[in-house]
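hi!! sorry for the late reply, been swamped w classes. u asked for the two structures so here they r. pasted raw, havent cleaned anything up. first the sequence of the first protein and right below it the tokens
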Amino acid sequence: MSISLSSLILLPVWISMAQIQQGGPDENEKTTALKDLLSRIDLDELMKKDEPPLDFPDTLEGFEYAFNEKGQLRHIKTGEPFVFNYREDLHRWNQKRYEALGEIITKYVYELLEKDCNLKKISIPVDATESEPKSFIFMSDDALTNPQKLMVLIHGSGVVRAGQWARRLIINEDLDSGTQIPFIKRAVDEGYGVIVLNPNENYIEVEKPKMHVQSSSDSSDEPAEKRERKDKVSKETKKRRDFYEKYRNPQREKEMMQLYIRENGSPEEHAIYVWDHFIAQSAAENVFFVAHSYGGLAFVELYHKQHNLMPVWQL
């Protein structure tokens, strides 16, 4: 069994805290000793030893992985499948690495949709200004003009994006298992127009601006003694908050905020928006939906909202 460095150093802290909670004549002395111990722990240095930097490649080649001729993700040098536990006892770091690889694969699938499936990337909202958040869908050239049939694909919830069914299957199995590409290619071969929805692309993330908190002593008419007590409490609160933050976010990752995309802030909104602005404008006599997992619920919501306007249904 292995024990991390943080566990070894902090064990006396938790023991001391438990002893303090039991009370006793030396409670104040123990509290002072505990505060002194906490003040001498260099948490930044401690976490650096526990967790490597969250600095990952931004290409498959940088990860030393590639998809082979069977669409399987394999290590370039060893030919082995992807290994999640790249570093033992560092679950957070391994998870962050997995997520970084997942973002690269998302972009890779987008490229396949355009190059291998000959779909076009269409920005939404259709009347978006240059500065507002945007999303996109993918469409075949004949998606709106095909007079016979149109196929619409909707994936489920989670981290998956347009063209994917399951990221886990893409990474651990192959592209055919985890993406919509086999469906799209067969649909095109059989004369369908195609629209690929992107219901999880609901917002963009931007760095959260730093908030400047004005000291209570700057604008208060309270007596000096009362202001000093409040400032002391505020400083202690901030110290405890910073102490916790160093554990929650040891490498000081940027704090992000979400800016939602107009009329596409949820999978349901997205499905309705694409229906109103694209599918409803299609010349197709029949529209076929292929939905997975939560995509089915988004479709049901679409049906309830627009069923009076919809043509022949095939599920």
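now the second protein. again sequence first, tokens right under
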Amino acid sequence: MLIPLNALNDNYIWLYQSHQRGVLIIDPAETQPVLDYLSARTIEPVAILITHNHGDHTGGIDGILSQYPTLPVYAPEEVQGGFHCVVPDSTLTIGGYTVAVIPTFGHTAGHVSYFIEGHLFCGDSLFSAGCGRVFTGDYAAMFAGLQRLNDLPAETIICPAHEYTLANLRFAQAVKPSAVITEAMARVEKLRAQGKPSLPSTLAQERKINPFLQAQTVAQFTQLRQAKDNF
């Protein structure tokens, strides 16, 4: 089970469950969508995973813990709250799941992504056809993180935390037009018109439509990201 729950304006809270184990909750921006989903299906959560410290990824933690007070929360060191601190380049075992912690710094200094059973929960590092803003100013770190993600298997299912796909595709078409991007735009426009998410994506698809994954050097990446900032 892979479920994107709508939250705030354009956030997705991801829920993941397999093999009748409990549910992993990734980046809960809000409390209520999570509680509503779990209570309607009598599903038990096993953990909350946090990619970084921005409020639109952590805002639902306290409310969820009020209902599930023993639920463990795993987060990078930059997230305040006395949670289980994840170490980049480590592997965790959580509720029967094997969770690889991948450093994807740049958007924030401690941003991590989680790779779980072929699914990548990448927060604000990688988006469909785009990537996050480099609030740290460390473009080399952001580029290195994206390179790490790009080394994952092509069939990896990409689960970003925001519905930015259409805007990202417009930028991608402006800087590196292709028929594949045109097709992707038509597909996403149809999904969004129906009120459906454009996500998840796959790494194979992203390699075709995402200019930030196609950048070969830090300089190329930096130029692209700064151009996107002003697009």
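hope this helps!! also noticed smth abt the second:
The chain has nine helices and 14 strands.
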